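User: My collaborator sent over this chain with a note saying "see what the structure looks like." That's all I know about it. Can you take a look?
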Amino acid sequence: MSMEPTRDAHSTSPTGDSAVGLDVFSVLWKWRYPILGLTIVFAVVGFLLAYMKKPSFTCESVLYLGKKAEGVYTDPRNAKFIVTSEDFLKEVTRQDPSLSSVQDLRRMVDASPVNETSVKFTVRAQDPDLAQKVCTAVAHTYLSRAKDEVERSLGNLQSTKQALVKLQAEVAKSLERNREALRNMEASGTGGVERELALARLSEYVVREESLLLDLANRIQEIDLKLGGAVRPEILETSPPLSASSRGSKAYAGAGAIFGFFLGVFLALAVEIRRYLGA
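Assistant: Without extra context I'll predict from the sequence alone. Here is the result:
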């Protein structure tokens, strides 16, 4: 009696765990040329899409707004709202009528804080000359407003200082009179309750005015420090228009190559798995 070799049911079953036996590396090697072809094709498609896309130029300008953000225009956090407002953009177009409309400018212009004292303006346009012109116009318009605000702030500080100096002189005169009166009353030999009350009142006036003079001197000193350390806003740098076309071509080509590669791998595995399961 002949003995037939037994066969493992799992080795012949087209379904279930038999799919695990599919050699992925062998499949990829078998389909290497179609996968490579799809990778190249999609890379070329991505490059062509980027090449046919209209070039974009970016111009940036950085403004220094001062040591301390105390106003609307000297606070970098407000810059984005300001440069995209209709009022600001209308002023930009009034200074240079050759520029685009307010709606077009709003799509081109952006602003972001660099730090607590500086702001960066970014302008994107398909024409490099237009990008440069808009960037310059926006920076100078904002700079003009920031300078005006700083000058108003410094003017207010100067007026406040003058008022404090005047008050300081008046308090100093009053203090001298009260001190003189206090000395005279202390030197007099007369006594009584009224004298004691007058002495107490004059002493209180002297102490109060001495404290007020000290406070006024400190406030005047603080204003002097602000006036002496004031720095006007200025444009730190303005970059020439830079094209993003070359970088965009590489990005599109790379994305296309990655997509094509994985598409090829997916199709190859799908075909082989379907063929294996149908065997």
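A starting point for your reply to your collaborator: The longest strand covers residues 57-64.
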